[in-house]
Specification:
Number of strands: 6
Order of helices and strands: EHEHEEEHE
Number of domains: 1
Shape: globular
Distance between the termini: 22 Å
Helix content: 10-25%
Radius of gyration: 16 Å
Structural class: alpha+beta
Number of helices: 3
Strand content: 35-45%
């Protein structure tokens, strides 16, 4: 299966009860199907400035925001595919570009391989040289 590397979409997020979620999923069942990552644990390593400028700006809900992260959909080993992603949001539209590569080549939690990658995030790259935090969550099931 080919890896999608460029995204443009709306992301709408809602707070709902488990009963509401079940009803919504039942309603959508005939129209949508989960992708290959639909029932997984997502692991993200986010990069930020030493003063956490990107996350602080994001909390303020600006018209434009951006983030750089390494994402994995399973427990990562040296040969596991991970995604280095630059995600930008402008006026409720999300734009994401990513590259897939083995974990051993990705920026790591020490940041020592960070500067080797010429991802499309060169503007953000100059401003956030260090890992800022890890996020793990279960999606689906």
């Amino acid at each position: 299966m080919a890896v999608q590397t460029v995204f443009q979409r709306y992301e709408l997020k809602y707070i709902m009860t488990q009963a509401q979620q079940r009803r919504l999923l039942q309603t959508m069942e005939g129209y949508m199907a989960p992708d290959q990552y639909g029932d997984t644990t997502i692991r993200d390593l986010h990069f930020d400035t030493p003063t956490y400028r990107l996350i602080r700006q994001s909390i303020d809900k600006p018209v434009y925001k951006e983030k750089l992260r390494v994402r994995c959909y399973s427990q990562a080993g040296p040969d596991t595919t991970v995604f280095v992603e630059l995600k930008k949001k402008y006026r409720s539209v999300v734009y994401k570009r990513r590259i897939a590569l083995p974990e051993r080549q990705a920026p790591d939690h020490h940041g020592d391989r960070y500067r080797e990658h010429q991802h499309e995030g060169h503007q953000i790259r100059r401003r956030c040289a260090d890992p800022g935090g890890q996020l793990y969550y279960r999606r689906g099931g």
